[in-house]
């Protein structure tokens, strides 16, 4: 009698074999994203902030106080973006970007902090599909979230803006570009933050870095620019990630100290691509 032989490593008969595909990885990352505890409150904060600030600024413009109206219309920040209805509808993006950046960072760093990343990489040995799946999930979620928030902001501010002769004009290319640009900018911020989180693998360090890049450095350089005549300060300031990227949301004229809308966004996109490439190299070579 001869003993039956079976090829080494072959699964027992009757047990289905599921190959690792990108779509399976994507589905897994979507489930992890939905079940991440920070997802719900971060999404809620982003929506409330974007809609709330739009309604607040619109209400101030619609006030009967002429001094308040004049102060809002002469606000340098709003004037730099271009005083239009679109400016009001999108005004909350600068605060919403922090919540989106934190959420994108947590998508990566939370796995390293809990050690779950080892199980993920054991299931997906090539690793890169995990990074790309996370990127697709966070960018898609950001696009849906920001689009919905802008739609609600448009609806709730429309009566006030029409009364103030600042209704959103979708026949004006600059305003359409600014609305779409707001979605594009925040989606790119999410991708940027995901890449930083992948490189740093530490929640606190990643959030600190993102806050410094998107909030602290622009303020510091704005102070330097206004207190010195050195041309290099303008050159550096206009190429900071947030200063350059948010130009795509502007509907006003472009001053000499800032980049054109699409050029500015291109700078941010360039930073993001470089960081994603670095993240891809790192995730392949560094131990989990």
UniProtKB/TrEMBL annotation:
Segments crossing the lipid bilayer: 40-61, 81-109, 130-156, 176-200, 207-225, 262-283
Signal peptide, first to last residue: none
Sections of the chain in a coiled coil: none
Keyword Transmembrane helix: yes
UniProt keyword list: Membrane, Transmembrane, Transmembrane helix
Any Gene Ontology CC annotation: plasma membrane
Keyword Transmembrane belongs to the record: yes
A molecular function GO annotation: ABC-type transporter activity
PANTHER family referenced in this protein's UniProt entry, alphabetically: INTEGRAL MEMBRANE PROTEIN-RELATED (PTHR37305), MEMBRANE PROTEIN (PTHR37305:SF1)
Name of the molecule in the record: ABC transporter permease
């Amino acid at each position: 009698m001869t003993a039956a032989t079976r090829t080494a490593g072959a699964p027992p008969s009757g047990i289905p074999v599921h190959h690792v595909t990108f779509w399976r990885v994507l589905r897994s990352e979507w489930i992890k994203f939905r079940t991440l505890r920070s997802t719900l409150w971060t999404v809620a904060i982003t929506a409330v902030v974007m809609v709330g600030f739009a309604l607040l600024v619109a209400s101030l413009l619609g006030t009967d106080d002429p001094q308040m109206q004049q102060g809002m219309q002469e606000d340098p920040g709003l004037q730099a973006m271009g005083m239009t209805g679109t400016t009001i509808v999108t005004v909350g993006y600068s605060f919403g970007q922090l919540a989106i950046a934190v959420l994108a960072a947590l998508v990566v760093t939370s796995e390293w902090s809990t050690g779950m990343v080892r199980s993920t990489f054991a299931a997906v040995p090539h690793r890169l599909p995990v990074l790309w799946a996370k990127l697709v999930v966070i960018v898609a979620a950001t696009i849906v979230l920001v689009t919905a928030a802008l739609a609600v902001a448009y609806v709730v501010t429309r009566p006030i803006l029409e009364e103030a002769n600042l209704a959103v004009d979708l026949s004006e290319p600059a305003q359409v570009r600014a609305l779409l640009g707001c979605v594009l900018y925040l989606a790119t911020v999410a991708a940027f933050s995901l890449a930083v989180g992948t490189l740093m693998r530490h929640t606190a360090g990643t959030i600190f870095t993102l806050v410094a890049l998107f909030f602290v450095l622009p303020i510091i350089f704005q102070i330097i620019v206004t207190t010195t005549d050195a041309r290099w300060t303008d050159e550096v300031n206009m190429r900071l990630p947030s200063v350059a990227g948010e130009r795509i949301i502007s509907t006003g004229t472009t001053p000499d100290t800032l980049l054109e809308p699409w050029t500015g966004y291109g700078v941010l996109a360039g930073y993001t691509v470089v960081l994603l490439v670095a993240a891809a190299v790192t995730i392949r070579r560094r131990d989990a």
